[in-house]
Amino acid sequence: MGKKQETQLQSCLTxxxxxxxxxxxxxxAEKAESESLSYQEFLLSVxxxxxxxxxIRRIERGLRESRLPLExxxxxxxxxxxxxxxxQQIKTLLHGEFLNHNENILIFGNPGSGKTHLICAxxxxxxxxxxxxxxxxxxxxxxxxxxxxxxxxLPRVLKKLSRFDALIIDDIGYVQQEKEEMEVLFTxxxxxxxxxxxxxxxxxxxxxxxxxxxxxxxxxxxxxxIVHHSVILELNVASYRINTAKNRKLKEAS
Length: 254
Ligand code: ADP
Ligand code: MG
Prior knowledge:
60% of the residues lie in helices and 11% in strands.
């Protein structure tokens, strides 16, 4: 290929934003020649390199944007601590199909049972499968929504959240929330109903959710919407924190 064509090729690739193809085509062309690849096979190798690099960048961006604590993943999580049924449920959830149906995930369990860690690990896996995930503690999310409401930005913030396939709300009802906070939470849940998945963790069984939403009607309406299409995971296991502390004590004693 002549110098002029080479320059033209490079400017085409730049104009099309094919940065990886631009960087790699020479090398890939040499490889294609030595392996006697067809024109189509060569084209595939170039576009595949571009797609892969874009996917990696997209996921890195998604991980930053998700605000997930990345150290809470399946590599650092001991699945054997969980009941067999929950392990089965996790396997199914990892296919990500529930997100296509806007189904919700609810994880219940006592403090320290691993709810936060598990939901973050799930979120991270789904994100790596190219799903858009957003993580927040319930308290922080409510603070943000209230502030947005005060500044008349609530619709905009809700719209931003609606672009995520999964919205993780960690620790719903952990703190006693104000009625106003609960109203924005309700608005958010009603808005997402059948339009996007929420993944929620809670120490409180549904029977105690009146403590969260204050108002029995609102509680019933919220629970109804959340449960309508949902998968419930019950982590009836002892606290990991207490267990590790106990094991440490035992070790020290022996
Ligand atoms: P919860 O949200 O149910 O209160 P966390 O997920 O915060 O519990 O877990 C408490 C601590 O124990 C965290 O540091 C977490 O990483 C760890 N932990 C809990 N369950 C497991 C597990 N099965 N394997 C590894 N670490 C765990
Ligand atoms: Mg937690």
